[in-house]
Design brief:
- By secondary structure, the protein is α+β, with helices and mostly antiparallel strands.
- It has a single domain, classed as Nucleoside Triphosphate Pyrophosphohydrolase.
- Helices cover 25% and strands 32% of the residues.
- Strand 5 and strand 6 form a beta hairpin.
- The termini are far apart.
- The relative contact order is 0.21.
Amino acid sequence: MTRADLDRLRAALAGPEAAARVAERAARGGRPAAVLIALADGTSGVGVVLVEKDTRLRSHAGQVAFPGGAIETSDASAVAGALREAEEEVGLAGSEVEVLGVLPPAYVRASDFAVTAVVGHWPVPRPLAPVDVAEIAAVHTVPLDVLLDPANRVTWTHPAGFSGPGFVVGELFVWGFTAYLLDGLFDLAGWTLPWDAERTTEIPERFRLGRRR
């Protein structure tokens, strides 16, 4: 990712289109939370850091997500909260990340969170592993090219009647709020390639239900 790419993304995050991308889910309540969308440089291109939640969690069990969680009173800002959570969950220190900007808070009904997505550049990546092993089962750095490949994009359907953009990444399935953020960020950055939104698939049970205690 070149400096020009980073500067364009930074400008886009600061502009009015960033708010437009989350307008339909703009937070009007909910507990403050933050996630980190870490864009990691690599020898074969840019990757995105994703975590796989433990299947025994009461909320979002087994789902693929960004590092993040509730903002604490000790956090100076949503950015501080996202960076703290990333370090606590996967060992990615805030000092390693260049913050590019944020997306306005969006509401997640399943957890009653108002989530601010913090977008950062991780220029010197290294292997990551779960630190909070009670919550995180695995850490994945997924190549941006894989996520953007139209062959890996689908529209997921939920038994409750919901649907939305999804990503098939090998054995992983990315859906829900995480996929919504990726889809919006890619559009905002101008990276989206044409894909067939009519291609639908059910959410694999592993990523929808997890395993209850």
